[in-house]
Amino acid sequence: MRAVFLDRDGVINENRPDHVKCWAEFRFLPGALDAIRRLTEAGLLICVVTNQAVINRGLVPRVTVDAINRQMVSEIERHGGRIAAVAYCPHRPEERCRCRKPQPGLILDLMARYRLEPHECVVIGDALSDLDAGRAAGVASILVRTGRGREQLALALAGGRFGLTVAADLPAAVDHLLPPAGAFVWSAAGGGT
Predict the structure, then answer these.
(1) pTM of the predicted model over 0.90
(2) What is the 3-state secondary structure (H, E, C) of the chain?
(3) Which of 25, 63, 144, 166 has the smallest set of CB atoms within 10 Å of its CB?
(4) 72 within 8 A of 12, measured Cβ to Cβ
(5) Domain locations along the chain
(6) What is the pLDDT of residue 179?
(7) d(CA 140, CA 136)
(8) What CATH superfamily classification does 3-192 receive?
């Protein structure tokens, strides 16, 4: 694995029903900063991929969304993490763009920019649209139960959608992706590593 695509609201920070409209409303979820630091220390490319229809709905200006994202990245860096890119879709669902998840446009663009193959990537999100965007791009995914995750998991199961990889939150998803420090990992090619 070389890259992780993280949804923002509900994965990194609290998902507000009235949307994050300014930095004062942005709250990191417990353990998110440490989880991103661990991904960074593992040498993974980390990109944030988020729908931000608040822009085209006229609720929040693009300049404010950019400022929130810059502050988020700054705080992540202050805690030892690194975000390579923040990509967002400003469109409303009815605009039917190629970048609003569940469409894979943002993920495909980032994969092209960083020369990534689908098998080298994973998407972590709190919505089925995150997972569907990953699947459309050929990328594995993990659903977290923070944000909208619990409700989305219930919808998936009620609809007969099984076989999802599910984690309690971003730290648990990172635990799933990264072996604990000092752990013995068996390699069929050459024994333990």
Answers:
(1) yes
(2) CCEEEECCECCCECCCCCCCCCHHHCCECCCHHHHHHHHHHCCCEEEEEEECCCCCCCCCCHHHHHHHHHHHHHHHHHCCCCCCEEEEECCCHHHCCCCCCCCCHHHHHHHHHCCCCHHHEEEEECCHHHHHHHHHCCCEEEEECCCCHHHHHHHHHHCCCCCCCEECCHHHHHHHHCCCCCCCCEECCCEEC
(3) 63
(4) yes
(5) 3-192
(6) 73
(7) 10
(8) HAD superfamily/HAD-like (3.40.50.1000)
The per-residue pLDDT for 191 is: 46
pLDDT of residue 76: 98
Catalytic (active-site) positions: 7, 9
Mean pLDDT by 10 residues, the chain (193 residues): 97 96 98 98 98 96 98 98 98 96 98 98 98 98 98 96 96 91 52 44
